Amino acid sequence: MASAVVDVGSERDEDTIFRGLRATTRRRVRQARKHGVTVRTGDVADLPVLQAIIEATARRQGFAPYPADYYQRLWAAFGTSGHLRLLIAERDGVALSAVLLVAFGDTVIYKIGGLADVEDAPPGASELTHWTAIAWAREAGYRYYDFEGIPLEIARAIRAGAPAEPKGVAFFKLGFGGEPVVYPGTYDLLPDGLPGRALRYVLPRAERWRGAVHRLSGRRG
């Protein structure tokens, strides 16, 4: 597992962190502001807005979104204790982008987010939303802003100083000046005997059954 992590430690001022963004990312943040995009903090009543944006993103990118009650359960578990933060970018009252953040220890984790399908939407809403989240994390005293989820081979190449050409989501996330972090992998300790042999047969084939797993776990698609 690999991630892009921005150091937002309080010894770095906001201007310094902003200068660490990729030039095109900084430009899109400024463009969003110039076009009147603002970012507000949402609450439990705004979860349907988040859900609609995630579903629009899922249609474009071809992944299966969580059902609406997933976010309700997440908020019930962590929202009242201050461990969740929802940010929504808008212009003229129309939601353009949203991110859901999980704060734990010294780190703010980007859990999920997306971009709405809005005709003639101004540029940079997603960039401004994440920049607002990074600035909030620093102001709130956190040390790291963790984007999660970039390809392992890209992270390893960058860390080794080798040529790397991140694309898509990885390119977007690395535009905020974060350093690639490679976390230890996970391992399965399988039982001996027949159960272990059965699992060794099933697990490599589990990817083929993703749809059934999603249905059993409450996800669609």
Please give the alpha-carbon distance between the first and last residues: 24 Å
Strand order of the largest sheet: 2-3-4-5-6-1-7
Mean of the pLDDT scores? 87
Total strand segments: 7
Whole-angstrom Rg: 19 Å
Portion in helices: 40-55%
Secondary structure class reads alpha+beta
Overall, the morphology is globular
Q: What's this entry about, in short?
A:
The chain has 221 residues and is an alpha+beta fold.
Protein described:
- The protein has 221 residues and is of the alpha+beta class.
- The protein folds into two domains: 2-182, Gcn5-related N-acetyltransferase (GNAT) (Aminopeptidase), CATH 3.40.630.30; 188-221, no CATH class.
- Helices cover 42% and strands 21% of the residues.
- It is built from nine helices and seven strands.
- The chain has helices at residues 14-19, 23-34, 47-61, 68-79, 125-139, 152-159, 168-174, 193-202, 210-217; strands at residues 2-7, 38-42, 84-91, 94-104, 107-115, 144-146, 179-182.
- The chain has a seven-stranded mixed sheet.
- A hairpin with a 2-residue loop joins strand 3 (84-91) and strand 4.
- Helix 2 (23-34) packs across helix 5 (125-139).
- The longest helix is centred in the N-terminal third of the chain and has 15 residues, at 47-61.
- It is globular, with a radius of gyration of 19 Å.
- It starts with a strand and ends with a helix.
